[in-house]
Amino acid sequence: MSDGDASGSSAPGRTVQERRGGRPPARDGRAPSGTGGASRGTGGLLEGGLERLRGVATRDLMIGALFIAGGAVAVTVVNALTVQVDHPHVDAWEPWVWESTSALVVVLLAWLPWLSTAGAPPDMVREGWRARIAFVGVHLAVAAIWSALHVVGMMSLRLAIYGLADAGPYEPGPAAEVYLYEFRKDLLSYAAFVCLFWILRRLRRTEPTHLRPVSFDIRDGARIIRAPVGEILAVSSAGNYVEFWLADGRRPLMRATLAAIEVELESYGFVRAHRSWLVNGARVTGLEPEGSGDWTVELGEVRAPLSRRFPEALARLRG
Known about the structure:
This protein is an alpha+beta fold. The protein has helices spanning 3-7, 16-20, 42-54, 58-86, 93-108, 111-119, 129-164, 175-205, 258-265, 311-318, and strands at 216-220, 223-227, 232-238, 241-246, 253-255, 270-274, 277-280, 286-291, 294-299, 302-306.
């Protein structure tokens, strides 16, 4: 990519698609069907996931762990008392050891669903079939690992406690059977934790931010275009690049994924209105219904699509 392409010194009216040899978008800036909105490749998905992990908030982990710990205590008490009633021949202390060791390991492993939710949030299922497959694959793999660590951890603690108490051997049964039995339950717990961390993330995104960045560096190859954040009207996907729609009419390109840019700008009022568009909520001048639940976002002379698949974006832009 040459510097002249992204700096606006190319022939007037030339679009990103024309500079890249593809179809030009409509004059209002909206990408025609089949361009710019396609699912990202596996490389883009990986890059987007890594970028999300770089922006992960440890506060979400702390708050989430408190909720998980509270739930674990409640489950421990209920289950231990239930076992005591249903199995009176069992020593009274044993159910408490079984349940408390499981609960302790669950809390200690809270960081795993926290990280997986940050890297593959439920929002990504709206970004195309590749993103949906990646989302399911990531969380099934992490859930299997999380359950294995849970089983190994709690069994190790129980063996140690039984040994210290000289209470005889603790025999949990065949490892494969124990894992499959626990995995069925752990899968539900893992899904609940993903939902918890996703909700915390969304709540954090809606918090007002008082400190605004003065500018955003658009890295166009070796060049840096320093644009005031308030002058960025929208950002759209353009293959392996993103295109910045600036208030002065410039449209520089940057090699990045839209997901990566969203991580950097979402806390400053930028809203994902379409799988291939981010819009600056502070620069919206109008909303026009297009039928079937879709809308057009007006940002001065720039018009961006708002998909019906992003109802929360419409709610935020309406204020």
